[in-house]
Amino acid sequence: MTPTPPPRGRFAPSPTGPLHLGSLTAALASYLMAKSQHGQWLIRIEDIDPPREIAGMAERQLKTLADFGLLADEPVLYQSERAAVYEATLEKLLREDKAFFCSCSRTQLAAQGGIHRRCVAAIDPERTAIRLRVDDRTIAFADGVYGRQSQQLGVSSGDFVLKRADGYFAYQLAVVVDDAAQGISQVVRGADLLASTPRQIFLQQQLGVPTPAYSHIGLVRDLNGQKLSKSQWAADLDAEDRFIAFCMAYRHLGQDAAVLQRGLGTQAILVRALQHFDARLLPALTVPEPDGTPDGH
């Protein structure tokens, strides 16, 4: 039997704000999962939505990760530099009739519950998106934390957007193309993205690229039960006691933070965290919910 190669994991933040405890938890989870299996860990900056991004934030996020000892094994990939690859992928899908041009607006699709199964508007050259053609198949996969998941895409998402009408590439396209290009075999991320995973698997199938193993981490929430990244007071980790933040993230992952010791130094603490990490303890803390942004981004 051919041995399974070590995994290649990644952390992929969008530069829309400073990293907070929820971000650190996701980054730490993906790092520990990959490294505990002697794998590699990469960082990708998902900077394909300029209206939402903050200048200089990507560099600030990378510095914060470095402050916690979370360093990528390969050069950081920036999605903003990948437009030619995304365009080539879209051209392939259009050529194979797996994708199509569409000018339907959300308002026009409201009568269909917002689900696109057929175009209800004529093509407007000034406002045209590209959608992936979705059939009625059910996509099922085993999540490493939440167990078996299944979704009938024709009912839940319909023909979803790959390139937006404003000209920006959609998250679903970029994440699939880049996971394949970087050889990512293990995706560990927040549970708010669990519902969008079947769309990504379907696109992987349409492109003929491998499907990574997925594990979704229960979200870190504030005192009101809101996802931390949506909270007004979500603390910027640059201003936090790093040891306390690290312990909180480690404990959120179901691990015993008592094995960590203040004063050991960043790398020594990370080594201890890795030595005692047990992926079987990762908790499914809450019922996952979609992240609430267009097309699962």
Describe the protein in words.
The protein is α/β, with parallel strands linked by helices. It has one domain (8-218, 229-296): HUPs (Rossmann fold, 3-Layer(aba) Sandwich). The protein has nine helices and ten strands. It has a three-stranded parallel β-sheet with strand order 1-2-3, with helices on one face. Helix 1 (21-35) packs across helix 8 and helix 6 packs across helix 7 (197-207). The longest helix is centred in the first third of the chain and has 15 residues, at 21-35.
Keywords for this structure?
Rossmann fold; alpha/beta; disordered C terminus; 10 strands
Give a brief rundown of this model:
The protein has 297 residues and is α/β, with parallel strands linked by helices. It has nine helices and ten strands.
Proportion in helices? 25-40%
The biggest beta sheet, please?
Answer: 3 strands, parallel
- For this structure, what is the CATH homologous superfamily? HUPs
Q: Give the total of domains.
A: 1
Number of helices: 9
Which value, in Å, is the CA radius of gyration? 20 Å
Termini, distance in Å? 39 Å
CATH architecture: 3-Layer(aba) Sandwich
Q: Mind telling me the CATH class?
A: Alpha Beta
Low-confidence stretches: 230-234, 291-297
| Average of per-residue pLDDT values | 88
Topology:
Layout: E1 8-11, H1 21-35, E2 40-45, H2 57-67, E3 77-78, H3 83-95, E4 99-102, H4 106-109, E5 129-132, E6 138-143, E7 147-152, H5 153-156, E8 161-163, H6 171-181, E9 186-190, H7 197-207, E10 213-217, H8 242-252, H9 266-276
Parallel strand pairs: 1-2, 2-3, 9-10
Antiparallel strand pairs: 4-5, 5-8, 6-7
